[in-house]
Structures are given as C-alpha cells and as structure tokens.
Specification:
alpha+beta, 7-stranded antiparallel sheet, two-stranded parallel sheet, 4 helices, 27% strand
Length: 172
C-alpha cells in the first residue's frame, strides 16, 4: 500500500475528521485539540520503513543546557515517545515500524497526541521552558471542541497524589 494511502487509513482508523486534516507529499497532519500532529513514513535504504508521529507542544524555547535538563527529566518518565527540542520547537515524537498492525499504529498516535495535549493543557511548556504553546490552526481556524483521541491517556494516567495499578505516568 502506498504510504499516503496507509496514512489516510490510519486517520480513518482514528476517526480524524477531514476538516482538521492536511495532506501533502511528505505526510499528513491533523489537529485533535490545540496542537498539530504530523505523520510521515520514511523508507531508509537498507532499513525497514518507519512511521514517525510528531506533536509539537511549544515554540520559542531556547536551546540551553537548562532547557535540555527539563526535556531529559520528562524523557525519564515512562512514555511511548520521546521529547525533543530542535530549532526552538519542543515536540513529542515516536517511531513505529510502518508494517506494524494498524491498531498498534493507532494506539501509538493516540498516546502521543493525548500526552502532548495533556502537557500543553497543564502549561508545562510555558511554566518549565518559558516557551509558548504551539497552537495549530487549519485554514485559519482552531477547533471548538477536542477530538476523543485527546483523552486516550486519561484511562492510564492519574493525577499526582492518587494511585493506580495501570498508571504509566504521574502528571505533576
């Protein structure tokens, strides 16, 4: 299946509305709440094709050792993805084999989007990094209500001070 068709199938699996989707030759993007998520497939020579998921959380973050310590601390917590800082942009990103079952790909995308939207909602980028939230618009418009994908992690993430045997991360 061509990568563009696979990416569109993934968006269909996630029930992402076409009005909140952008497609170009390099991949597909969508907005689930405030942040934009980009999906692309790389096909490295001699390697297996990989699906990359990236949700931008913050803009205008300085590239300093202090900021990298904050990013490294966040990466020390259990998560499917990895926090990155590049060119002033902080994003949560993950890579999965492009041949992985569609359900697994959808779960990874859901986890990344939900974790990133939660971090943005809690003001992590502004509070700890001094950046601004990476609000994303489609055709000049923002969503008036969040897509259900944004609450994916709420089933497995608990607030600080509470406990759960299913918790992946304690949000502070």
């Amino acid at each position: 299946m061509p990568w563009s068709a696979q990416l569109l199938s993934l968006l269909n699996e996630l029930e992402i509305e076409p009005d909140w989707t952008v497609v170009d030759a390099t991949g597909v993007g969508f907005v689930a709440a405030d942040l934009g998520t980009w999906l692309s497939v790389s096909d490295p020579p001699g390697g297996s094709p990989r699906l990359t998921v990236q949700t931008r959380v913050a803009l205008d973050v300085p590239d300093t050792s202090r900021h990298w310590r904050v990013i490294d601390d966040r990466n020390g917590r259990a998560t499917v993805g990895r926090w990155v800082l590049e060119g002033g942009v902080v994003a949560l990103t993950a890579t999965v084999p492009a041949a992985a079952p569609l359900g697994l790909q959808a779960a990874v995308v859901s986890d990344i989007v939900s974790a990133a939207e939660t971090a943005a909602f809690l003001g992590w980028a502004q509070r700890d990094l001094g950046g601004c939230k990476a609000l994303t618009l489609v055709d000049g418009l923002g969503r008036s209500s969040a897509h259900p994908i944004t609450s994916y992690r709420h089933q497995v993430v608990v607030p600080a001070g509470f406990s759960s045997t299913r918790a992946l991360e304690v949000v502070t």
